[in-house]
């Protein structure tokens, strides 16, 4: 099942046409993504009976982030061996966890206004929780994941390393637009192997990142189990699972995003986001 957010309304993508869920369910489910995630088991049972409902064609520009209103957004650092090595940091024994704030979420084809500083790219696979998880075993973790989507953990590196704290991850990664998500939320059963998907990133036509999520140090099931052993994961929560090697900060010399560049982010079986980067206008 492929879920999309079509101009603020939850819809099913059936072969390139959009089926409005509120209309197709005769009001049983609302148009809000969070409603579906809060009632995920009930929604999945209903969707399985829908069949080939008539939909309407849609344009990429109509798509918004295919998520609800997450109460918690987790992000995992250094979760690909190559990324840990390029930053010169030891491979962690346990997940390195930080947060992003929900106000940073934007759509898969929206422009992103860059603040002053050094804005870097980080292509990521993002897991969306669909069933409350507390103390979940790794073997049962996929049962709590509604689906997977494509994400960017955009980062302003100057603020990230600014004193007095050694790292300011959460603020530096939470400017408006710093969490593009989309173009669809795809349920795990749609993948031959949801633990091993191609992931890549390009700036204009130059590829800068390419890997497979099978290279993750801590897998999606492990992360769901680990996090749910510390605090409850709630429907709609997001887990940014980490980025592979190829970030701008690690290049010699470092290379950051520039005004007018198009950032394309791809995950196999989900699709490609394309976000145009624009420089913030000077005040005054």
TrEMBL record:
Enzyme Commission identifier(s): 4.3.2.3
Pfam families: FAA_hydrolase
Record keywords: Lyase, Metal-binding
TM regions (residue ranges): none
UniProt domain Fumarylacetoacetase-like C-terminal: residue ranges: 73-277
Broadest EC class assigned to this enzyme: lyase
Keyword Nucleotide-binding: no
GO molecular function, one term: ureidoglycolate lyase activity
Any one of the GO BP annotations: carboxylic acid metabolic process
The keyword 4Fe-4S belongs to this UniProt entry's keyword annotation: no
Family: Belongs to the FAH family.
Protein name per the record: HpcE protein
UniProt source species: Mycolicibacterium chitae
């Amino acid at each position: 099942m492929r879920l999309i957010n079509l101009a603020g309304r939850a819809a099913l993508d059936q072969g390139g046409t959009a089926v409005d869920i509120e209309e197709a369910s005769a009001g049983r489910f609302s148009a809000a993504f969070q409603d579906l995630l809060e009632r995920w088991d009930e929604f999945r049972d209903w969707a399985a009976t829908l069949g080939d409902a008539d939909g309407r064609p849609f344009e990429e520009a109509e798509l918004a982030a295919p998520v609800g209103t997450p109460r918690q957004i987790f992000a995992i650092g250094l979760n690909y061996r190559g990324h840990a090595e390029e930053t010169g940091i030891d491979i962690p024994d346990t997940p390195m966890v930080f947060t992003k704030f929900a106000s940073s979420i934007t759509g898969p084809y929206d422009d992103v206004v860059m603040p002053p500083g050094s804005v870097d790219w980080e292509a990521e696979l993002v897991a969306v929780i669909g069933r409350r998880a507390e103390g979940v075993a790794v073997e049962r973790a996929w049962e709590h994941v509604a689906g997977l989507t494509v994400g960017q953990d955009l980062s302003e590196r100057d603020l990230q390393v600014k004193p007095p704290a050694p790292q300011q991850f959460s603020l530096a990664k939470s400017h408006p637009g710093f969490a593009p998500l989309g173009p669809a939320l795809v349920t795990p059963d749609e993948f031959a192997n949801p633990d091993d998907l191609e992931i890549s990133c390009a700036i204009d036509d130059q590829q800068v990142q390419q890997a497979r999520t099978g290279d993750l140090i801590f897998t999606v099931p492990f992360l769901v189990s680990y996090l749910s052993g510390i605090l409850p994961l709630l429907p709609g929560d997001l887990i940014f699972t980490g980025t592979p090697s190829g970030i701008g900060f690690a290049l010699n010399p470092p290379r950051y995003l520039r005004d007018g560049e198009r950032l394309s982010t791809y995950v196999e079986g989900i699709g490609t986001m394309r976000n145009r980067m624009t420089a913030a206008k000077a005040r005054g």
